[in-house]
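During the reporting period the student researcher (J.K.) took over the structure-prediction task from the postdoctoral fellow and processed the backlog of single-chain submissions. One of the processed entries is reproduced below for the supervisory committee.
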Amino acid sequence: MTYQDTAISYHLLTAPDDRDGIFVMHNAARHLRADGHHLRCVDLIDNPHLETLDLSACATPVHLTVRGCPKLATVLLPVAPEGAFLHWEFGDMGSPVQICGSLASFDSCQPDGHTCQIKTDGPMYDHSLLVPPGAAPRTPIEDTALFILLAPPEGLHTLAPIVTPNLRAVHLHGLTNTDDLDLNGPALTQAQIVNLPSLKHLKAGPEMSALSMDRCPELCTLTASGSVLRIHRSGGSEMDLVGVWDHAHFVAVNARLKSGLIGSTQAHNCRHIFSDTASLSNATAPLAALPSPDAIHDPYWRTTLHRWVTTTHSPSAVLPALKILHALLETEGDADELWAMRRHLHQRHAKLSHLGPGRSALWKAPRDLAFETQQADFALWRACVSQGVEDTAYQAALNTLPWVLPMAVLARAARSASSEQDQQALLTCLSASISNMPTGSDIPAKHQEPHQHTLVGVARLIEGLLPLRTHPTAASIFWDLPAFLEKTLPASSRLSPLAALNQMGLSSAGAQLLAQARDLLKDNPDLAARFHAAALQPPRTDLLAAIQKGHPQHAD
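J.K. obtained the following structure tokens:
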């Protein structure tokens, strides 16, 4: 059937109502065509003889409602940027329907209560095939972009291959005897799988934007990657997820998950899946997504991981994305390409921006992953630099870091440096950043480091520097830390780290506690008293006692 078919005698639909719509009920015609560019809404109710509907001349977007038209087999829609909206109730019987033209959304309610709803996540569907309940399945033609199969006959034991080069979306419901399903198509990005009671293994492509599984109780292996994964009321005792996903949503799933990398997870009424632990364990073990240790060498998986890194949007996915880039680099990846992917990732996930030359923004990562994210980023940069990558902006940022969290990363890196030269270079960068640190009032509020990140950074900074306290540069940093804390933390948050440094014997910390007590005496006497009491506490250790201004002494 084409738009130019002249072999059919059409009955014309004219005279739309004042809302650009027309209601067609109990019409005896077999072929209907809209006449006029004002018609936009068509309701077809109980037209048992209708076979063809031509709406190609209608205004867009077309809204079409169909009920009680069991012989309707062809619908022609306008070819336009605004796709049509189809609402279809097939009832207990019907024939396969070929839709030609721009389709944006389709929904259908079945007598058994099943609701099918699918929308485009990109260009319009130009060719669609709808197979209603009870109808013998038809194989999609090569141009089919959307395929919907609803409750085929009970006698159907095997499903013919349905994936075509142009198939972009599929909805399958009620395939009772299908054990294995392969939807790995070159263009397929959206799939909805509902009520497949025997399905055990499903494979889909690495480019899925959305995959939904509902009422597949025997599902044990899912091999697919993409943006959004939804699994409802599915899975046996164990479910093996082989793939990489930005986000997953589980409802009433009691299977134990194996493998799989998920940037963020939501779980409701699930026995073995919990949102926080699933997200965190996946984020800190990113290569669990791979089916075997050697799989990262597989071109399929390398392509999958590349795609996930370049499209992920979840903040908790930044850490695994950086670790994946590092792993790809270690397996003979191109350093310049991978570092460029890191820059693009940073552009999507930067917490702060527009801070001037050389000032790289913080990653937008959850609090419990913030330090590990900065650390993974620094490790990736060092690995790329060792392979000849040049990024002067990143190097300049190390000397002018306006936040504590990445400074703590420098301290940790200096502690584990492989050479004295490397250690000195890292401590010099850290010292320069501390000296150049602006006060909080000098940084616009929207560009300031989150307070919780600063607190974590201070603790990690002290922890990282302690083993290096005998190093002259590290000793100098320790001496200046009390003044640095005054720049970066409000008075109430300053008390704890200053008290800890004073307990370790750092005399400049004790002096700062007394100075703070005097400054706060008038406006906040209770807090001033706490500072004063902390300053008078005798040190518990002389760990930092040998450090003096201008004369850092080396402890044994």
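The committee noted the following: The first strand starts at residue 11 and ends at 13.
J.K. will present the remaining backlog at the next meeting.
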